[in-house]
Design goal:
It contains two helices and twelve strands. The chain is of the alpha+beta class. The chain has two domains: 39 residues; 133 residues, Protein Transport Mog1p, Chain A (3-Layer(aba) Sandwich). Strands 3-4-5-11-10-9-8 form a seven-stranded antiparallel β-sheet. Strand 10 and strand 11 form a beta hairpin. The termini are far apart. The N terminus is likely disordered.
Length: 181
């Protein structure tokens, strides 16, 4: 080490090296923390909130995401969430649907997909969802669909993502923030 080369003033040199190294270590740790925060972004004051009292629905989403109301009728609503600028339907990062006048058994079966039944259960935040991965028997030219269903207060809530087999971390945090009351 450089300590052997410089005897006079070695203390000063050692002190400078130690301070310099600790500053580099602190800066490296801070940079790594910022990277970790970016990768595992959690709902905070910078997140926006979507709320719809008619459907007893509210949730938080990152400030760089956009919510587009695709369809709004008295008996149902379809929301499309996009990371970044809004695109067209089918390119959404997350789709949220709510249907009034639903029955509890509606969360267990997808009649629109020929009676496909839930194949798992998942609790995110305050809500336990029925999980659907479709198609269960993949065929040629089919894309995977992943969606969650929950009936509460006679409203069927559905959250879906196209071309995935599970939600990514940000989608999971959005769904975890759901309040259905």
């Amino acid at each position: 080490m450089k300590l052997r080369k410089i005897l006079v003033g070695g203390f000063l040199c050692c002190s400078i090296v130690a301070i310099s190294n600790s500053n580099v270590a602190a800066e490296t740790t801070q940079a790594q923390s910022k990277q970790a925060e970016t990768k595992t972004q959690t709902p905070d004051s910078s997140w926006k909130t979507y709320s719809n009292p008619d459907f007893h629905l509210s949730f938080s989403y990152p400030s760089d995401w956009n919510v587009k109301v695709s369809t709004a009728k008295p008996e149902f609503i379809i929301l499309l969430l996009f990371q970044g600028a809004a695109k067209s339907a089918g390119d959404e990062d997350l789709k949220i649907e709510a249907y009034k006048n639903s029955k509890p058994e509606d969360e267990n079966i997808d009649q629109d997909a020929g009676g496909v039944k839930s194949n798992a259960q998942l609790t995110l935040g305050q809500t336990t969802w029925k999980v659907f991965n479709e198609p269960l028997q993949a065929k040629v030219n089919t894309i995977p669909l992943y969606f969650l269903r929950k009936v509460q207060n006679t409203i069927l809530y559905m959250v879906g993502a196209i071309n995935v087999t599970k939600l990514n971390p940000i989608q999971t945090q959005i769904v975890s923030s759901f309040k259905l009351n």
